[in-house]
Design goal:
There is one protein chain. The protein is built from two helices and five strands. Helices cover 20% and strands 33% of the residues. The protein has a five-stranded mixed barrel. The longest helix has 11 residues. The chain has a single domain, classed as Beta Barrel (OB fold (Dihydrolipoamide Acetyltransferase, E2P)), CATH 2.40.50. By secondary structure, it is of the alpha+beta class.
């Protein structure tokens, strides 16, 4: 009985298995987020790339309600300003998606 109780208690503290999920949204940066008008740089893709390269902002995914920073900062560059599907693991506390892949959304 003690053994079973120990197994139960120990199981409660094991980390949850991280699973890849799909997130659909637009590649942006974490400074401008959803609104690129304040920088007066058009089109949005140019603003995003400028903010990342010059102002050291980070690539992110805007899904319509939240903005998630992306762990990979090279892969999203070619998708700046585009609607995509990011496959990866979301870390809720930090709002960071550990990127596995990025593809254009259909």
């Amino acid at each position: 009985m003690r053994f079973l109780l120990c197994l139960l208690v120990t199981g409660m503290y094991l980390p949850a298995v991280e699973e890849n999920r799909n997130f659909t949204g637009v590649i942006t940066d974490d400074m401008c987020k959803k609104n690129h008008t304040m920088m007066n740089i058009t089109p949005d893709a140019k603003c995003i790339r400028t903010c990342v390269s010059i102002y050291k902002s980070k690539y992110a995914l805007a899904d319509g309600k939240d903005v998630y920073r992306l762990s990979d900062q090279q892969m999203p560059e070619k998708f700046a300003g585009q609607k995509v599907v990011v496959t990866g693991v979301l870390y809720e506390k930090t709002k960071i998606i550990k990127v596995e892949s990025i593809r254009p959304a259909k």
